[in-house]
Amino acid sequence: MQLDNNTIRQTHYNILNVKEDASQDEIRTHYKSALLTSHPDKLLQHTTNSNYNDPQSKFLEIQTAWEILGDVKSRALYDMELRVSRQEDIVADEIELDDLAVEVSSDSDVVELFYQCRCGDYFSIDSSELEEMGFQLLTEGNKLSLRARDSADVASIVLPCGSCSLKIRLLIKQDTS
Ligand SMILES: [Zn+2]
To answer: Distance from the CA of 31 to the center of ligand 1, in angstroms?
Structure first.
């Protein structure tokens, strides 16, 4: 696991000082200007102004960033890796079924489950979404339970917040029966 590194490590976009939705042309422009300001020959002449302890490695970082972002295919792959690493990073908390608030819709059998996010909005999932994931939501009075239909090895579900980028992990206790 290198999730901790991912949160600290600069992205290739940071290194080129370019937005993540930048066009290929913009990336090329930023790469060229990053090269101009960080070329080892240049930096050695201005060591007092340099922000970088190691001009050679900064230069290599820029080259690597360009090799990945300058190519549409490798950029798309890299974007996907970034998204995956971020999704795992922003799971805010772990909760259990008992922690969720329940709302039963009056005009359908859909049961909605809520948990308040720190932003004020809610993490939510409803029973039909759970069905699609292979979980059956059972209600007995006020008591909720989830039964996994077939994928018994799935032990948690990640719920997104309605407003912010936080997510929460709902842990599912399997019935031992
Ligand atoms: Zn939120």
So the answer is: 35
Specify which of 53-57, 127-131, 136-140 reaches the highest per-range mean pLDDT: 127-131
Compute the distance between CA of residue 165 and CA of residue 33 in angstroms, rounded to an integer.
Answer: 32
- Centroid of ligand 1 to alpha carbon of 66 (angstroms): 34
User: What separation in Å is there between the alpha carbon of 169 and the centre of ligand 1?
Assistant: 13
Structural tokens at position 2: 């290198």
Q: If you ran DSSP here, which 8-state letter would residue 153 be given?
A: T
pLDDT band at 148 (very low <50, low <70, confident <90, very high): confident
CA of 28 to the centre of ligand 1 (A): 36
Sketch out the chain's domains with CATH numbers: 3-89 (1.10.287.110), 91-171 (3.10.660.10)
pLDDT in the model for residue 7: 45
From the CA of 164, how far away is ligand 1's center (Å)? Answer: 4
Contact 127, 109 (CB under 8 A): yes
* Residue labelled with tokens 């590194």: 5
